[in-house]
Amino acid sequence: MGRCGAALCLALEGNIAVGKSTFLKLLGATFPEWHLVTEPVAQWQKVPAGGTAEASVGSANLLQMMYQEPARWSYTFQTFSCLSRLKAMLELPPERFPGTPHPVRVFERSIYSDRYVFAKNLFEAGHLQPLEWAIYQDWHGFLLRQLGPRAALHGFLYLRAMPRTCLERLRRRARSEEGGIQLGYLQQLHGQHERWLVEKTTEVHFADVKHAPVLVLDVDKDFEHDAAAQGVLMAQVEAFATALRAQTLPSCPNPL
Ligand SMILES: Nc1ncnc2c1ncn2[C@@H]1O[C@H](COP(=O)(O)OP(=O)(O)OP(=O)(O)O)[C@@H](O)[C@H]1O
Ligand SMILES: Nc1nc(=O)c2ncn([C@H]3C[C@H](O)[C@@H](CO)O3)c2[nH]1
């Protein structure tokens, strides 16, 4: 960090169907020079399942398998989701113009919500065995410590809405794998986000990320069809990114 020309790296966090993809599109329209990285959900729905040299077994929908049989597939899911997030984070972004990096990169969720929201919740719900949770934490901690600043984020944007609002949006969107999701699951995930990003009672094992600033954005109301509400949200994000850039990358004169 502190290297001139380096991008400010943020993660966009929040409950299922709170509106992260919608918000990311709005960020793209408002800040076209920013680099936005969507969650690799399509990869989870179509995992090349290998097979033998003679016969390929095609692909597997790991997202569906995890929801249908969580005790069997949660560990597999968390290894794959975390790996896919890490690859997306380490992949070099395309340069805007030669020698001009993106001033800001925003990732939809992160290797940190993978652990401190989802995997933790699956463990507490009994879907990850203590041994699986211990092994997950062991390789997660080892990998991230080895990667050091390459795996760090400068701040978090937390989209917050009531779990009931998320359930309504989830039902309206009707992604086939999510048909069995009940309010209780969204309440659990809401609690995990709150303890991690607001109350700060979740034990976080990486100092940078533990102290990274969090911008909480209330999206309980409809911003999708409200230009004024969109303007307020975008101004909040811009002010947050500007302050964070001055604080964490002080030697970079790059304006946002
Ligand atoms: N502020 C909002 N008000 C009303 N509806 C919204 C709002 N934001 C998003 N929606 C709608 O809610 C649904 C879910 O939104 P979206 O797909 O952006 O959620 P998400 O957080 O990206 O979901 P996931 O956690 O699965 O990645 C979509 O139908 C979207 O049109
Ligand atoms: N178990 C589990 N672990 C994760 O790290 C994770 N990240 C996202 N999801 C689920 C939520 C949406 O249904 C869908 C798209 O966000 O994928 C996850 N589920």
Automatic annotation (TrEMBL):
<dbReference type="GO" id="GO:0004137">
    <property type="term" value="F:deoxycytidine kinase activity"/>
</dbReference>
<comment type="similarity">
    <text>Belongs to the DCK/DGK family.</text>
</comment>
<feature type="domain" description="Deoxynucleoside kinase">
    <location>
        <begin position="11"/>
        <end position="240"/>
    </location>
</feature>
<feature type="active site" description="Proton acceptor">
    <location>
        <position position="108"/>
    </location>
</feature>
<comment type="subunit">
    <text>Homodimer.</text>
</comment>
<feature type="binding site">
    <location>
        <position position="109"/>
    </location>
    <ligand>
        <name>substrate</name>
    </ligand>
</feature>
<feature type="binding site">
    <location>
        <position position="78"/>
    </location>
    <ligand>
        <name>substrate</name>
    </ligand>
</feature>
<dbReference type="GO" id="GO:0004136">
    <property type="term" value="F:deoxyadenosine kinase activity"/>
</dbReference>
<feature type="binding site">
    <location>
        <position position="114"/>
    </location>
    <ligand>
        <name>substrate</name>
    </ligand>
</feature>
<dbReference type="InterPro" id="IPR050566">
    <property type="entry name" value="Deoxyribonucleoside_kinase"/>
</dbReference>
<dbReference type="InterPro" id="IPR031314">
    <property type="entry name" value="DNK_dom"/>
</dbReference>
<feature type="binding site">
    <location>
        <position position="67"/>
    </location>
    <ligand>
        <name>substrate</name>
    </ligand>
</feature>
<keyword id="KW-0067">ATP-binding</keyword>
<dbReference type="InterPro" id="IPR027417">
    <property type="entry name" value="P-loop_NTPase"/>
</dbReference>
<dbReference type="Pfam" id="PF01712">
    <property type="entry name" value="dNK"/>
</dbReference>
<keyword id="KW-0418">Kinase</keyword>
<feature type="binding site">
    <location>
        <position position="178"/>
    </location>
    <ligand>
        <name>substrate</name>
    </ligand>
</feature>
<dbReference type="InterPro" id="IPR002624">
    <property type="entry name" value="DCK/DGK"/>
</dbReference>
<dbReference type="GO" id="GO:0004138">
    <property type="term" value="F:deoxyguanosine kinase activity"/>
</dbReference>
<dbReference type="GO" id="GO:0046070">
    <property type="term" value="P:dGTP metabolic process"/>
</dbReference>
<dbReference type="GO" id="GO:0005739">
    <property type="term" value="C:mitochondrion"/>
</dbReference>
<dbReference type="GO" id="GO:0046122">
    <property type="term" value="P:purine deoxyribonucleoside metabolic process"/>
</dbReference>
<dbReference type="GO" id="GO:0005829">
    <property type="term" value="C:cytosol"/>
</dbReference>
<keyword id="KW-0547">Nucleotide-binding</keyword>
<dbReference type="GO" id="GO:0005524">
    <property type="term" value="F:ATP binding"/>
</dbReference>
<feature type="binding site">
    <location>
        <begin position="14"/>
        <end position="22"/>
    </location>
    <ligand>
        <name>ATP</name>
    </ligand>
</feature>
<feature type="binding site">
    <location>
        <begin position="169"/>
        <end position="173"/>
    </location>
    <ligand>
        <name>ATP</name>
    </ligand>
</feature>
<feature type="binding site">
    <location>
        <position position="39"/>
    </location>
    <ligand>
        <name>substrate</name>
    </ligand>
</feature>
<dbReference type="GO" id="GO:0106383">
    <property type="term" value="P:dAMP salvage"/>
</dbReference>
<keyword id="KW-0808">Transferase</keyword>
<protein>
    <submittedName>
        <fullName>Deoxyguanosine kinase</fullName>
    </submittedName>
</protein>
